Amino acid sequence: MRFDIITLFPELFGPFLTCGVTRRAYESGRVDVRLWNLRDYAQGNYRRVDDRPFGGGPGMVMMAEPLQRCLEAIRADRGDRAPVVLFSPTGEKLDHVGVAGWASGAGAVLICGRYEGLDQRFIDQNVDVQISVGDFVLSGGEIAALALLDAVARLQPGVLNDEESHQFDSFNPALDGLLDCPHYTRPEEWAGRVVPAPLMSGHHAQIERAVTDAQAQAREPESTTKLAPSTQAKTAGQRASQTALRWRWMQVSSTSPASRCHQRAAEKISTSL
């Protein structure tokens, strides 16, 4: 897959593409990232890419003309019409399902906005998808683009040391969208706090129950604090039923992703103590 990034600050991407475990995706070419400096497509001595907004107001607006020239150069270089993505607070919030979709696709053109935003005429004519990474404001779209690239790269085969580890990520639909459970490592006791006994038992069923309960509890505050007491009780009852059903299924199916993961963890702990 190939991601072409329109940005005023291509230098921000250098360290990100060469450090950490996700660099494997970029170095191997599995995720091809190409940076396009918008100022290279601006005209005049000052290579201006922004101007004052019509109607007044604070700040500056990115001009449509250099953006269009840059996009046309990208399309000519790619030889296709990849989807054009703009990071914007009006976009759909990025989640695990969305990331998985991009990770299995052919890539996109990512536009990193600055200032007060882009000329709306360019958006109307060219942008296919608008994405938000949360209800807060950034100084530019580069950090949002980095977040998408990182999330996509780690899902590529051969990037993570354990090929199955991303199957147990928080929000993965394969785990009913539950949050990942708390994790512990050596020493067994630290600062007066000990590792939960079920995780030290080597008993696969106890470990599964502890993990499932921890995942359900992690979701509790977010999902129920704004509900009426009667609705909270109903939600808690539904969660308990779902947890019980999921637990019984895991007891029967030792080949489930979560079962395999925590069996391996238990075996590593018990054999190395």
Search tags:
two-stranded antiparallel ribbon; disordered C terminus; alpha/beta; Trp Operon Repressor, Chain A; Alpha/beta knot; five-stranded parallel β-sheet; 273 residues; 14% strand
Describe this structure in words.
The chain has 273 residues and is of the alpha/beta class. It has 2 domains: 152 residues, 3-Layer(aba) Sandwich (Alpha/beta knot), CATH 3.40.1280.10; 108 residues, tRNA(m1g37)methyltransferase, domain 2 (Trp Operon Repressor, Chain A). Helix content is 43%, strand content 14%. The protein is built from 10 helices and 9 strands. It has a 5-stranded parallel beta sheet with strand order 2-1-6-5-7, with helices on both faces. The chain has a two-stranded antiparallel ribbon with strand order 3-4. Strands 8-9 form a two-stranded antiparallel sheet. α8 runs antiparallel to α9. It is elongated and about 70 Å long. The two termini are 44 Å apart. The C terminus is likely disordered.
- Count every helix, treating DSSP H or I runs of 4 or more residues as helices: 10
Q: Radius of gyration, rounded?
A: 24 Å
Please provide the ordered H/E string of secondary-structure elements.
EHHEEEHEHEHEHEEHHHH
- Oligomeric status of the shown chains? single chain
pLDDT averaged residue by residue? 82
What is the CATH architecture term of the largest domain?
3-Layer(aba) Sandwich
Number of strands: 9
Short recap of the structure:
This protein is 43% helix and 14% strand. By secondary structure, it is an alpha/beta fold. The chain has two domains: 2-153, SPOUT methyltransferase, trefoil knot domain (Alpha/beta knot, 3-Layer(aba) Sandwich); 165-272, tRNA(m1g37)methyltransferase, domain 2 (Trp Operon Repressor, Chain A), CATH 1.10.1270.
